[in-house]
């Protein structure tokens, strides 16, 4: 059996989907199933795994979403036939799909589709996406929240399989950090103590604006020395977030890093005082688990898939209420008196135990079983 994995739409490995593909491929293990990744020729070495049963085929297509969509519509069916795929896995969800599925196909949904609909005023595209998902053979949902969202949009539940993403514990684990005033992660020197929010900078669903306002309230009330580090590339409406930072009275204590390499995130987490994750429309919430795995306490939104993903190992708040977010920050950071130490220690211990159930080898095995079993 030969399975194709579509790597288009993954921002050349610099997105969450790119990390998902890398983790999936690196954890396939020994299997008789042959796997062939296909995507931009530019990404040939991005997804190199060194495994004998995994190959990569580069496709010559212009580096633009329009060109890639056109290729999926006009060329993918014949490409799939030529390469003899028994099935194809589409990790980028509805971003890039053919109009017709000519071989058994599985789409991985990590986004909340109803949220995408709300942010789009193109009824034709929304209808097309729903039609494609109704026709695909199977859908892998990254959480029960994503599954339930799809079902609410009339996608048959019988064709949806929930498979949680994993955590790379060889990369994300507690590190002993020197008690320095700053952490050096090229090209940054980040003054400590700080709070971390690692996510693509978009507005409004990621709730950066609410967090910035909450951070301002926290600073005014406590006078704490903490900084707020917003680590992530700019996305849709990022200018709204940048404007909020510039207008904040604590702008000098807020750092927007831009794109931050995934391999360097463990250092950033480990040196942080806490992770605050206010996103209201998460289908995965993997950064929450990554922070827990690095041994820092987490406070996150009581919304989306986060209560499912974080369980009882996080402190929760209403992501639309800056005062409630500020209160959670105040409870979770070190305050110099030791008053928060008990809660912090409890959250860290719960987090380290909780993340053990999220394994990439388990995710890869279940994904392979789902695709090969059609």
3D structure, described in words:
By secondary structure, this protein is α/β, with parallel strands linked by helices. The protein has two domains: 2-166 and 359-372, 3-Layer(aba) Sandwich (Rossmann fold); 182-357, Rossmann fold (3-Layer(aba) Sandwich). Helix content is 37%, strand content 18%. The protein is built from 14 helices and 15 strands. It has helices at residues 16-26, 65-74, 76-82, 113-118, 123-135, 144-152, 208-222, 238-247, 265-270, 286-293, 306-310, 322-332, 341-354, 360-372, and strands at residues 2-6, 34-40, 54-59, 87-90, 105-109, 138-141, 160-162, 182-185, 188-191, 194-198, 227-231, 254-258, 274-277, 298-301, 315-317. The chain has a seven-stranded parallel β-sheet. α7 runs parallel beside α8 and α7 crosses α12. The model has no long low-confidence stretch (mean pLDDT 92).
Write the layout of secondary structure elements.
Elements: E1 2-6, H1 16-26, E2 34-40, E3 54-59, H2 65-74, H3 76-82, E4 87-90, E5 105-109, H4 113-118, H5 123-135, E6 138-141, H6 144-152, E7 160-162, E8 182-185, E9 188-191, E10 194-198, H7 208-222, E11 227-231, H8 238-247, E12 254-258, H9 265-270, E13 274-277, H10 286-293, E14 298-301, H11 306-310, E15 315-317, H12 322-332, H13 341-354, H14 360-372
Parallel strand pairs: 1-2, 1-4, 2-3, 4-5, 5-6, 6-7, 10-11, 10-13, 11-12, 13-14, 14-15
Antiparallel strand pairs: 8-9
For the record, what CATH class of the largest domain applies?
Alpha Beta
Strand content: 15-25%
Alpha carbon gap, first and last residue:
11 Å
Spatial sequence of strands, sheet with the most strands? 3-2-1-4-5-6-7
Structural class: alpha/beta
Broad shape: globular
In total, the number of strands is 15
Helix count from the secondary structure assignment? 14
Helicity level: 25-40%
Task: Encode the helix/strand succession as letters.
Answer: EHEEHHEEHHEHEEEEHEHEHEHEHEHHH
Find the CATH superfamily of the largest domain: Glycogen Phosphorylase B
CATH level-two architecture of the largest domain: 3-Layer(aba) Sandwich
CATH fold-level topology of the largest domain: Rossmann fold
* Structural domain count: 2
What is the averaged pLDDT score?
Answer: 92
The Rg value, from CA coordinates, equals 21 Å
């Amino acid at each position: 059996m030969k399975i194709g994995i579509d790597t288009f739409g993954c921002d050349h490995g610099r997105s969450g989907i790119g990390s998902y593909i890398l983790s999936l491929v690196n954890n396939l293990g020994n299997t008789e199933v042959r796997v062939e990744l296909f995507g931009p020729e530019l990404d040939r070495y991005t997804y190199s795994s060194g495994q004998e049963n995994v190959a990569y085929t580069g496709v010559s297509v212009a580096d633009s979403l329009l060109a890639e969509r056109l290729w999926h519509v006009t060329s993918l069916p014949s490409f799939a036939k030529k390469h003899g795929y028994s099935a194809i896995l589409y990790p980028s969800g509805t971003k890039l799909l053919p109009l017709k599925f000519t071989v058994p196909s599985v789409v991985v949904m990590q986004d909340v589709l109803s949220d995408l609909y709300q942010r789009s005023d193109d009824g034709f595209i929304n209808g097309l996406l729903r039609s494609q998902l109704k026709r695909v053979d199977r859908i892998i949902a990254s959480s029960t929240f994503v599954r339930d969202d799809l079902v609410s949009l009339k996608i048959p539940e019988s064709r949806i399989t929930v498979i949680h993403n994993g955590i790379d514990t060889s990369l994300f684990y507690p590190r002993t950090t020197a008690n320095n005033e700053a952490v050096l992660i090229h090209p940054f020197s980040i003054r400590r103590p700080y709070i971390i929010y690692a996510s693509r900078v978009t507005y409004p669903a990621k709730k950066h604006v609410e967090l910035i306002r909450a951070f301002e309230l926290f600073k005014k009330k406590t006078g704490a020395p903490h900084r707020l580090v917003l680590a992530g590339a700019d996305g849709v409406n990022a200018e709204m977030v940048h404007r909020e930072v510039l207008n904040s009275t604590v702008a000098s204590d807020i750092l927007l890093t831009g794109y931050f390499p995934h391999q360097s995130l463990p250092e950033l987490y480990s040196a942080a005082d806490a992770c605050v994750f206010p996103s209201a429309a998460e289908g995965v919430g993997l950064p929450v688990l990554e922070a827990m795995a690095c041994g820092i306490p987490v406070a996150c939104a009581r919304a989306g898939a986060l209560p499912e993903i974080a369980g009882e190992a996080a402190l929760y708040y209403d992501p639309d209420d800056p005062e409630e977010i500020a209160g959670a920050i105040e409870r979770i950071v070190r305050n110099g008196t030791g008053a928060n130490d008990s809660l912090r220690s409890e959250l860290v211990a719960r987090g380290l135990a909780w993340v053990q159930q999220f394994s990439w080898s388990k995710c890869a095995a279940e994904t392979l079983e789902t695709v090969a079993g059609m």
